[in-house]
Structures are given as structure tokens and as C-alpha cells.
Amino acid sequence: MLNNPPDDVQNDASDALDQRVAKSSRALATAVSELLHERAFNEITVQHIIDRAGVARATFYARYRNKDDALYSSYEQMIAGLEHRMERRQTRDARLAPVSELLAHLASAHSVMESLRASDRMEMIWELGTGFFTEMIERRLPLFAGSAASTVTVPKLEARMLAAALMELTKWWLEHPQRMTVEALDDHFHDMARRVLLLPR
């Protein structure tokens, strides 16, 4: 029988595989994003995505069931990237969600929004966004509320309410972008969150 390779060899192989998976996942997400700038989502095929990403069809289907699944994953990665950007910014107070970052991103993605709207995917986008931001807000509640976090009675419920409010706020701002700056709306959202959570302002 062959002996198992040493642990360091196994770890190196595992790291290399993880890097390849991460690279192909980034390529697929980038391909979806680029194609959304060019055409309606209904007109995009799996073949378009794998051709743009430069990966094999088997690689696509190892990660996603279909093109909608690839879209959802790309959307989730985008939101995770916005959270990472928020955390890198030097701010005095912790925030629940990257509101200003989200709005600024959407303002620069008009063609993507039109692609999704033309393909009847916007309701799905709002629903998914509520789910993604619910998880983020629930996870970040202790950072935002500090010692008062223990007074939040049902964190998942409050997080869901605030995530839904964020999606409605986003819809409103997209229709009235001149009414408030993204920074002012970020402050407004977090002031509202403090009132919902009965935190001192």
C-alpha cells in the first residue's frame, strides 16, 4: 500500500486547490458582473459566462446549478465586499451595514440595475438583499450596540426588520437620489436602528 503524503504536502496541495477554486469563483463573478453591464440578464447564457470567465463548463456546474445561482453568488460576494470596505474605513462608531457603500455602488451600476429590471429579477434582488443583510446585521449587533446588545430581545427579528428597512430605504433613494447624500442616508439608517433597538443616541 502507498503511504499517505506528509501533512505539509497535503496542506500545500489543499492550499493550491483552494486558490484555484477562489480564482475561478472570482472569474465567474466578474464575468456575471461584466455581462450584466452589456445585456439583459435573460439574454445571458451559461455559455456566455464560462466563455467570459475562461473556465470549463464542468467548473461552472461544480459551483452553481444554473445562471441564477451564479447571479445570487455574485450578489452575495458583492455585499461581503462592501462589508469588508466598511470595516477598512476609519470611523469612530461601528455600523450595522455598509449603507453609504451600497448606495454609492448601486449609483455606479445603472446598467446592471436595468439588466435585472428588464429580466424581472429586481424583486428577487430585494428579497435576497434582505436575507444577506439580515445575517450581517445580526452578526454585527454586538459591535454596534456594545454592552446594550444583551437587551435586544430577538436579535434575528430585529435584524430582519432593519434589513427590510434598508432595502426600502435603498429603493427610495434610487428614485430620489438628489434628496439626500449617501452619507446622510447612512446616518439616518443608523439613527433609526438605534431607535428600533432602544439604544442611546
Verbal overview:
The protein contains nine helices and no strands. With 201 residues, it is an all-alpha fold. The protein has a single domain (7-196), classed as Tetracycline Repressor, domain 2 (Orthogonal Bundle). Helix 7 crosses helix 8. The model is unreliable at 1-6 (pLDDT under 50).
What's a quick, concise take on this entry?
With 201 residues, this protein is mainly α.
End-to-end span in angstroms? 68 Å
Inertia-based shape: globular
Query: What is the helix tally?
Result: 9
Query: How many strand elements?
Result: 0
Summarize the amount of helix as a percent range: over 70%
What would the average pLDDT be, to the nearest integer? Answer: 89
Task: Provide the number of structural domains.
Answer: 1
Q: Biggest sheet, open or closed, and with what strands and sense? A: none
Give the helices and strands as they follow along the chain.
Answer: HHHHHHHHH
CATH superfamily: Tetracycline Repressor, domain 2
What top-tier CATH class fits best?
Answer: Mainly Alpha
Name given to the CATH architecture: Orthogonal Bundle
Helix/strand-derived class?
Answer: mainly alpha
Contiguous runs where pLDDT drops below 50 for at least 5 residues: 1-6
Strand content: under 5%
CATH topology: Tetracycline Repressor, domain 2
User: Mind telling me the C-alpha Rg?
Assistant: 20 Å
What descriptive keywords fit this protein?
201 residues, mainly alpha, Tetracycline Repressor, domain 2
Topology:
Layout: H1 7-36, H2 46-53, H3 57-63, H4 67-88, H5 99-107, H6 110-118, H7 122-145, H8 155-175, H9 182-196
